[in-house]
Amino acid sequence: MYRSLFILLPFVLFLSLSPCVGQDIESIGRSLVKKYLGSTDEEEQRDALKNLVGLKVSIDKIKEWVSFSASYTPQQAGIHRKLVPVGDKKGECFVYLPSDYSPDRQWPVVLALHGVGGSGYGQIMAWLRSSMHKDDFIFIAPTYGSGLWWSEEGETIILSAINKAKQDYHLDTNKIYMSGFSSGGHGVWYLAIRYPSLFAAINPVAGECPLSSLLINLMHVPAYIIHGVRDTVIPVEAARDANSRLERLHYKVICRELPELKHQFPMNETGRVLEWFLTNKRTRYPKKIKYSTESTRYSVAYWAEITEFSGLIRQTSGVPRNVPGHLMRPEGFPVTASVEAEIKEENNEIWLTTHEIKTLRLYLADELVDMEKPLKILVNGKSIYSGKIERNIRTILDSVKKMNDQEALFSAYIDLTIPSDDQ
User: Fold this and answer.
1) Which residue blocks in 169-261 are alpha helix, DSSP H?
2) DSSP 8-state secondary structure symbol assigned to residue 130
3) What total number of domains does the chain contain?
4) Do 270 and 329 lie in a common domain?
5) What's the chain's average pLDDT?
6) In a domain, 197, yes or no
7) Could you list the residue range(s) of the whole structural domain that residue 60 is in?
8) pLDDT band at residue 146, thresholds of 50, 70 and 90?
9) Cα 390 from Cα 255, distance rounded (Å)
């Protein structure tokens, strides 16, 4: 009898425990991913990574756990006032949640920037009071009284507001749109040029592009420009200039000049803008990118990161402006660093053209290149790399932390030294 029980016991235990094994790995894995992403302690991160590797699951499973590692709680619909960190201070931000908001689904987002002397609350109300308002979007509207969003502090408030909203609400990070009125329109151009991989599309209203020479960065960021013909504060020529530059680049742009509109928020255009927004999704893994910058503060676009600039690139903290706050033309910037990258799928190659860059890091994913085959990289016509790229878990987790993006996942990277002309 005891011998029979001895034989049956392992079998019974297997039947009772085996359904839980997969569940345990799943819950443990998700917990470890969440622990790594939420920690700033190196030892804690190292332990979490070691345990993740020990689970011996696929890279795809790790990506799945990363994508679903965030958890959200139900929130009351309506307007919420939030405080977000801005250095040692706090900045004000208003968030509008739709009447049927639920954390169980992803929501498209409009980042709305006010003009000089305005407020985040006022900018949200301008959208909500429109007869064409569609209750399908989360609105995020920071307050920065001066409206000089291109300043270092103004930029920090915007990025902090986005990061806070990513933590609190179930945003669709592939559908983050940006709109701004007057100096808020300036800010829309500025932020999109500096961080093109954040946005699906933009809507500058009655604004002027402060960095028109860098509009090349908006290859994958469609623009819907609105400007009043009778605007005497920011003349309509500002819209026409940005539109013509984007058209010459063959980028996606719409420019609506409203004949009777002065320097006003276009209440009757909001419905058309929101409908257009939803026709655009962020390009997460573009096979071709162009990025230029005159400042070492701005070094990342999509899957390319400038890790060392040439000695000629000077660091700047904002855009020059005159006393009234109007932006000065950017042609005075002496030197620009640039990278153009294109993936040639047929040969599993990456072609790079660089200017004023010493070193570069490329983040890679299966959506970009075939990692089962050797990859070849050419820089300024010279072949500098040929070999296979190995995926690893740490790169996925570290790139998510660095870019605060749980949708664009990179499983490998390669660091490149740009050869000099005489090499």
Assistant:
1) 183-194, 237-248
2) S
3) 3
4) no
5) 89
6) yes
7) 18-67
8) confident
9) 45
Full-model pTM: 0.89
Collapsed DSSP state (helix, strand, coil) of residue 226: strand
Residue 173 in domain: yes
Q: Which residues touch 340 (CB under 8 Å, ≥6 apart)?
A: 288, 289, 290, 291, 352, 353, 354
Look up residue 148 and give its amino acid. Answer: L
pLDDT at 134: 73
Using pLDDT thresholds of 50, 70 and 90, give the confidence band for residue 9: very low
- Reading the block at residue 421, the tokens are 């002309």
In a domain, 5, yes or no: no
CA 291 – CA 301 distance, rounded (Å): 7
Other C-beta atoms within 10 Å of 262: how many? 12
Q: Is the distance from CB of 296 to CB of 275 less than 8 angstroms?
A: no
Burial of 22 (0-12, 13-18, 19+ CB in 10 A): exposed
Strands 288-293, 300-301: pairing is unpaired
Which residue from 160, 134, 157, 130 is spatially nearest to 146, judged by alpha carbons? 157
Element (H, E) at 156: helix 152-168
Residue 142 and residue 114 in contact, taking contact as beta carbons nearer than 8 Å: no
| Residue 355 CB-density burial (10 A; 0-12 exposed, 13-18 middle, 19+ buried) | middle
